[in-house]
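Reviewer 2 asked us to include a model.

Predict the structure of this chain.
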Amino acid sequence: MGLVTARSNNPIRQARVLAGMTLAQASIEAGVHLQAFFLQEQGVYPDLLPAIQAWLVVHEYSLPEALEEYHAYQRGKRRANGERLGLSILELGPPLGNPVLELRGQLGLARMGLAKEFCVHPGTLYRCETGISRSLPGQLRDALRDGGMSEDVLNDLAYRMEEVG
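Predicted model (structure tokens):
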């Protein structure tokens, strides 16, 4: 059985809805915390969690197809939110502090807002904002690129990450 394709819905959510399950029921059946299932539906994990992969198999879904549709969902969500927030024309302001915090400020987003809008794990953002990560993580770079941020601005952001560290 393949996943239903829709531009606005995560295929994991679609699978849950087609199974007639609430978020709580699906998370219990999959053996993951409700928040983990919710974040998977938001697209913030780079890939499908192993427990959710197993849950999909139980519900007769093709894992390669599910993973492909999950990544397509992420790219589409990033592109739409990038357009809405003007990411393609964004220029970084003067370097005043942590570049990821400054970027969030320019976009007017809280950490969880940036995570959900651009399908980036909030833990990745936390590591960037607290200085634990001293380079621009691939997941964040890919998310911003998918959202339309120019390579020049991405490179500037990466450079600033290294300088802050």
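Confidence is low (pLDDT under 50) at residues 1-7. The chain has two domains: 11-76, 86-164. We have added this to the supplementary material.
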